[in-house]
Design a protein that fits this description.
49% of the residues lie in helices and 5% in strands. By secondary structure, the chain is mainly α.
Length: 691
Amino acid sequence: MTALGGVEMGALAARTRALAVLRVRSRALAVALLPAAAAVILLVGGSTGHLVGGGWDVLRWVVSVLALLVLLAAAGVALVVARAEPAMTPTVTVPEESAPELYRMVRDLADRLDVPAPSAIALTPDCDSWLEDRTHPLHGPPPVDRDDDGLPGLGDPARRRSAVAAPVLVIGSPFLWWMRVGELRAVLAPVVAGTGPSAHPDIAAARRFIRGLDAAVAVASAGRRDPLSRAACAGLGWVSRLLLRSCRRHATEMERGVAAAAAERAQAVDYGLRIVAQEQVGLAYAGWDRLLTRVALPAWRMGRWPSRLDVGVVAALTELSRRDRLAEGFASRLGERPACDLLEEPGVVDEAVSLLAARLFHGGPAETRPDWSPVGWEDYPEEVVDRSWRTDAARLHRVLDTLGVRRTGAGTAPGTEGPTLARVLDHLTTPDPDPAPTLAPSTATDADPAPGTHPATGTTPADTHAPHADHATPHPAYADHDAPADDGDDLAGPVARRGAPDASGDGQAPHGDHAAPRLPHGDHAAPHPPRADHHGTPADDEDDDDLAGTTARGAALAAGLSAQLAREEARERPVGAGVPASPPGPGAGTGPDAALWDDRALPLLPLQPPRTGREILTAHITAMVCCAAMDTVGAAPGLDWLDGPALLLDGARTADLAPSVLSLVETGDPGPLRAWMTELGIRPEKPVRLV
């Protein structure tokens, strides 16, 4: 439905709401000038002989001083709002020389929609697409000549709209690798159509005002040390939040109008194909979520970052299409031209996006170094899966050493003191004696407890203040914990949990929805206790409840593992804060836009809350079982694209390990696990190789 002069109704509604936002700004200015106006009246009245007398003189002084203070405060607030840098989404900019075909497709789409083309294209490690204004407030757009009697809108000529700098088109990188060229064009049509409303002077001014207020709130929240600065920040925050609350409803309706206008204008462009492409948006979101949490996260924890995440999402979604009845047939489209062919060097771009994803979701460094190196998918099983299992197994035996557990287990050959699975099973299944046990001196060869270490948990007094090892993101369940997914119910979980993205593109989202969160500097952030939930609050009660159903020895072992992980995290965590970003390689032309966002508090978007003690213990026992399987029956580490690390025996993935391990952890019953190992021929008394 259109209105006067071919202008969409959504554009008219958006402009009306933009004017309402600007009226809030005008009213705030009027309130700030009101004491000054009263002072002028009193001064003029005294100079003309109308308001004379001692009382009027005192009132003139009081009002004049008040007016001066209010003007200074208003000028300070206005200066901060105008100069504060709005938060920007971390992205990887794609120069035109690196993707001429992609730019050509977007420009052709803009010409067909009769809107300005985006000023640039950037990629984000997420399944969404939007427009983002990256014009600094100090460099505002030039004035636009317009006829006040006219009603400018989406139908205006491009000559007028070009006066306002076009926003940047941000595209989710998984879309480029999973979608075909036609599907990407259809999905981007309503997003690109949003550049029309973005160029309207009133809408652009309203958005700048709202972004400035949001940035001012962030400045006020940062706080200062001295009392005067704290008072100034408190006043700035109060005024900015008051204005934001006054603008909130109008800003929301403005963005809805912009989205409606963009969607209406894009209806004539690939409408039928866009409906089909929306199915791929939801599928890509589910596969991307599983790839990050199940596949990428274990590698990040080992100091390795997969350098081809977008290639991996294609493999994950292809596997999802095979397993999920609802996704059947989606893989048949892979014979068509992928959208990543629009890039000159897709491998280089994929590497840059993969590094950015590691920084955002895990907090890794901005460049490759000895303890932070890329890993290819062909090396993932050996470099990540095998190494992570053996590292966990080594940590498990170090903690057993601190607990004074003997090296030899039942059935172990005399003189054998190597790390065995039997040692773990014996410790967790031997019933606790009534009298308090006397801890024997450790015969550990890997690591001895440090002086002052607690004999039961291996912790030191300083450990109670160390950040928890998984404070940022927890370790997902190993692949062999879960049976292969045969339907779409489990795979729909990530979408239902985080909300399906609207990449059909409303074109514009309400302000701040896609902005990078403003987090406190790492130096100012309060340290987290050893066990804290994802909000940073102590979680000791939750740990006690979680371990209440386990055996006493299992709880003690879980506590020791948590403390050991905390110490390792304290040593290794500050790996990337403040490291400047660098391009991925010579001639790449791409790299994270480090100048646009504050990277001193990473990760910005942690994937999952911390693991509980039960989960940590379960993961370490599972790792030990997998090491025993690899060293005694020739099992091999593997990669499942949807579930991450997997244990392979004769090329097939083993399953049903999780219930057996949980039975040992929760009840101390080794029967199910021993039966599982006997069936596969695993010998727990044989020493295993550790890292």
